[in-house]
Structures are given as C-alpha cells and as structure tokens.
Write a structure and sequence with these properties.
By secondary structure, the protein is an alpha+beta fold. The protein has one domain. About 35% of the residues lie in helices and about 30% in strands. It has six helices and seven strands, in the order ββαβαββαααββα. It has helices at about 35-45, 60-70, 85-100, 105-110, 120, 150-160, and strands at about 10-20, 20-30, 50-55, 75-80, 80-85, 135-140, 140-150. It has a seven-stranded antiparallel beta sheet with strand order 4-5-2-1-3-6-7. The longest helix is centred in the middle third of the chain and has 16 residues, at about 85-100. It starts with 9 loop residues before the first strand and ends with a helix.
C-alpha cells in the first residue's frame, strides 16, 4: 500500500462478500491490511466484493472501535466477526456509527456496559469523532485507497449491490 494515508499503523476493516442472494460482512482490526485481506480471502469460500477501512495512528482507538462494534452487534453475529447483511443489521450498524461520531452516549449508558467492555475500549465513546471510511481496491496486485466515504456514502455503497 503506497498511499500516504494507507501507511497508518492501525486499521478497522469492513469486508463484504456475497454468496448467491446473501451478503456477509466481517468487521475486524489489523496492523497489516494487505496480509489480513489475503488471509481472509484464503479462508473465505466467497470472493471479497468490497473492503472499507478506518485508519488511525492509535491502536487504542481502533481497538475501542472494534470492541464496541462487536459488543453492540453481537446479536447479529453469525460466526464471531461475521454478520449476515440485512436491513435490520445495516440500520443498527449505521445508527451506532453516527452515535460514535457525534458522541451521543450518556454516562449511564457507558457505565451500564463497563462490565462487558474494558475502559480503554469505552474511551472512544467519551468524545466526538469524524470517522470516514476509505474504500480500498486491489490495483495491479496492490491494495490502495480508492475513495473516502462518509457514513452515508458507505451505507449507500453497501446496499447498492
């Protein structure tokens, strides 16, 4: 990955693959995006359709974002970090991403989940963010940034397929 933005140290990834009329999403984190995508494709019987990322210089930020999303989406999980994309799942995911970006959490809400998520992970809920997703595409054998997407644009991109 040669783009300057792609040289960030930590990534939250959203990977989408399709099978027949179903779409699946994997949410995870990595320090080496290219190797992680390759490993997921090797272990996944379906071709990866899309890859979207949030990058950060701070491991704690990516860890917190991933832990919170996994916690919040646990009822939608079909296999650990894999989710069947449905209207209900997409609405829940994007509503929660908006809440994270706008710091729409009360102290009581955060406190109520503090036994299930460690404080370092919950720290992302205490302040505003402006998470943007980068669409990543493979070009000439290398993954590189294609386009920066807002949460609304990411939503549109996922449901359009």
């Amino acid at each position: 990955m040669e783009d300057k933005q792609m040289n960030e140290k930590y990534f939250l990834y959203v990977i989408i693959c399709d099978f027949y009329k179903y779409s699946f999403m994997k949410i995870g984190k990595t320090k080496n995006l290219e190797n992680r995508i390759k490993n997921i494709q090797t272990g996944c019987p379906h071709k990866i359709r899309d890859v979207f990322i949030v990058s950060s210089d701070y491991e704690e930020e990516i860890n917190g974002l991933e832990h919170y999303l996994h916690y919040f989406l646990k009822n939608f999980s079909i296999n650990n970090e894999w989710y069947l994309i449905s209207e209900q799942f997409i609405c829940a995911l994007f509503n929660e991403l908006y809440r994270i970006n706008t710091n729409d959490f009360s102290f009581d809400e955060i406190d109520s989940i503090s036994d299930e998520i460690n404080f370092d992970s919950l720290e992302i809920l205490f302040h505003n963010h402006n998470y943007m997703f980068l669409e990543v595409k493979k070009v000439k054998g290398k993954y590189s940034k294609k386009e920066t997407l807002s949460i609304d644009e990411l939503f549109s991109r996922i449901i359009q397929k």
